[in-house]
Amino acid sequence: MIIHLEKEQLKQARRDLLRDDVYIIFVDALRQYHQEGYTTLAPAELYLSAKYFVGDVLQLPDIIEGIADEMDDIMDEADNKDEAMLIMMVATGVFCAVGKKYKGGDADAVIRIIYDRWVDHPLFLPMLDICAKKEQEKWLKGKKTNLLTCELESMKTDGTTEAEASDFLHPFLQQVCEYSDDTIEKVLNPLRDLNEQYSGKFDKEVILLKRKLGVGCKVMPLSAGSFVIEEKNASSIISKIQEFQKGKKKPKDLAMPVRAAMDAGVIRRPSFVEYEAVAVLADISKTSFESYTNPVLKPYDDAAFWDMVNTFRHIV
């Protein structure tokens, strides 16, 4: 059901919704698209329509089977396709706030169904981009809704198959590449984690985004020696790390030569940004990199590791 309000009702609803964090995240985008003529509905009407839609969906005995019909009903009732899309995209934010599970239904699965229907719409990425910037200041249920990467994050834990992830990523990343570096960076980190989970199946997708950011275009950038203790040894040490990483796939194995060089005292612990700047080194997700190079932790203690440490100690 799409909500239409009289002037006074709209004024009151708008004021009441200022206490709703999800509305605050979406209102800038909804106001912009209303002004640009994509919909005749005011932001408050669009938001309340989305909440009504979510309420209807959550009452279904089988949400996954029934949501497609509910989306079709919105399509039939909306003035145009753009208006229907705006309502359903706002609904994904409401589902994010509801939580991962509700009344036997998986909110992540519902969000994926909505995204799959609208990922090719020209307003899909622009809307997420606007909302992602706004949500940096807002928190829901003790955590960010993370609208831009919500689907990627959920894929890591909800049983998504490799084929399903691939089907989503292709059109999604094509649009991501058209936007700012900030937007690409928001997507790159969870994509790396997803790639590790699927044993490097999405290497091409990770490389695509890295190239859009200008990472991986140089053989040896000037910043390569920034974390090496003796600058004159930078080339040798970086080359040795690269050599040890060759042929490895697992994050722990890729991080091991970095940690060995740290323990040998020839490099300080590099930040993830510094590591990324050395384009010849293997791609590792930020989460894994920071875990395996954390000096408080001791993830390595086998002969292969100590052989690496000794090799780095003899580089002069």
β-strand percent reads under 5%
Which runs of at least 5 residues are low in confidence (pLDDT < 50)?
A: 139-145, 216-222
* Helix/strand order, N-terminal first: HHHHHEEHHHHHHHHHHH
Tell me roughly what share of residues is in helical segments: 55-70%
Which descriptors apply to this entry?
elongated; 316 residues; mainly alpha
Report on the architecture of this protein.
The relative contact order is 0.07. 62% of the residues lie in helices and 1% in strands. Strand 1 (101-102) and strand 2 (105-106) form a beta hairpin. It is elongated. It is mainly alpha-helical and 316 residues long. It has 16 helices and 2 strands. The model is unreliable at 139-145 and 216-222 (pLDDT under 50). It has a two-stranded antiparallel sheet with strand order 1-2.
